[in-house]
Design goal:
single chain; mainly alpha; 5 helices; 60% helix
Length: 104
């Protein structure tokens, strides 16, 4: 989630950039970050870590953490852009577990 700390870090990052490229994330060479290059980074990290890492992994982890913190599934559904709440049900078990722990 975008919070005050994210804002400060983003402001710092932008203050260190000395270019006029209109993209937020750029490559090491200062060019636009293309999907294939990003995919190569994930492949590199997968090898380095010894388990698969992908944009979907990050998305799933984000949603799972929100569920564990007790965020309602309808909110998670909206953040993920799921048209149907059934697509968000994978997080229901985590949501219920987090809810029970808060009640204990």
């Amino acid at each position: 989630m975008f919070n005050a700390e994210c804002e400060e870090r983003l402001k710092y990052y932008l203050s260190t950039r000395h270019d006029t490229i209109p993209y937020l994330i750029i490559s090491d060479t200062g060019n636009r970050m293309y999907a294939r290059l990003l995919q190569k980074y994930f492949e590199k990290y997968t090898k380095k870590l010894g388990f698969k890492v992908s944009p979907h992994t990050l998305r799933h982890t984000f949603a799972a953490l929100l569920a564990q913190k007790g965020m309602p599934l309808a909110c998670i559904q909206e953040l993920l852009g799921h048209a149907d709440i059934r697509d968000t049900r994978i997080y229901a078990k985590l949501y219920e577990h987090a809810r029970r722990n808060k009640l204990d």
